[in-house]
Design a protein that fits this description.
alpha/beta; 6-stranded mixed sheet; 4-stranded antiparallel sheet; globular
């Protein structure tokens, strides 16, 4: 049932060691909370998994085979999506254009190949509704969406294009209590649909609600790993504060 396994991952930026022999695994249909203070190496590890960076040392195994992503496109085509809260959508584009950005369907009219706007509008609206979000119209600009709605569009897009593992980078940051709750419900819904999720956050109480397991980094080293039933939120916070397993 293991979807992703990273073994002995090292990454240096000049003289700075961002990751020092980190191991992490993500099982199918599992939410893993990736936690740690600023500078712990969370984002670096996530970007290695998503193909933004290549590790200096170590092995990544995805769906049972050793892989070496040379770009985010390669990781995305294999089924790994990384969603950044602020960069998930382009404000000046409509929901439907954002949904199909870079993968727009086309239709041929005579010698010309044109974007199929009707298809984009129909499919984006249907698939966003499938995950429980009612948008007014797929033609509305992304800038008019709430934080929770923006995340919903990004989630629905990932599911539609066959994501198997979604990496969420601070998905509830700067959201209201109601919007954050909506995002957490969406995470649960995605897991129920069979997806795996890596949830990066500073808000332990948010991730504790949805995660099955927690991996804690400190200055590039994995210092702890807990199953949810083994630990309380306050113990996770104390592990991060102390910089060592309790």
């Amino acid at each position: 049932m293991v979807l992703l396994e990273c073994k002995d991952i090292w990454k240096n930026f000049g003289r700075v060691a961002a990751l020092k022999g980190v191991d992490i695994r993500v099982e199918k249909k599992e939410v893993v909370g990736l936690l740690g203070d600023n500078g712990a190496g969370k984002s670096t590890l996530a970007k290695i998994i998503a193909g933004v960076y290549q590790p200096d040392k170590g092995e990544i195994i995805f769906e049972g085979r050793s892989v070496k992503w040379m770009s985010p496109r390669e990781a995305r085509e294999a089924g790994i999506e990384m969603l950044f809260q602020d960069l998930a959508l382009i404000d000046v584009l409509s929901v439907s254009r954002n949904f199909f950005l870079g993968r727009e369907p086309t239709k041929r009219i005579g010698p010309f190949k044109l974007l199929d706007f009707d298809k984009m509008n129909k499919l984006s609206h249907e698939n966003i509704n499938k995950i429980g979000i009612e948008l007014r119209s797929p033609l509305v600009r992304a800038s008019a969406l709430s934080g929770g709605e923006r995340q919903a569009v990004a989630f629905a897009r990932s599911v539609f294009f066959g994501a198997k593992l979604i990496i969420l980078d601070e998905p509830t940051a700067n959201l209201s209590i109601r919007e954050a709750h909506k995002v957490l419900e969406l995470v649960k819904e995605l897991r129920n649909k069979g997806l795996s999720i890596i949830f990066i956050t500073h808000n332990i109480y948010h991730v504790y609600e949805v995660a099955d397991r927690f991996v804690i980094l400190d200055r590039g080293v994995k210092i702890a790993e807990y199953n949810k039933e083994e630990v309380k939120p306050e113990e996770v916070i104390e592990t991060i504060r102390l910089g060592k397993s309790m």
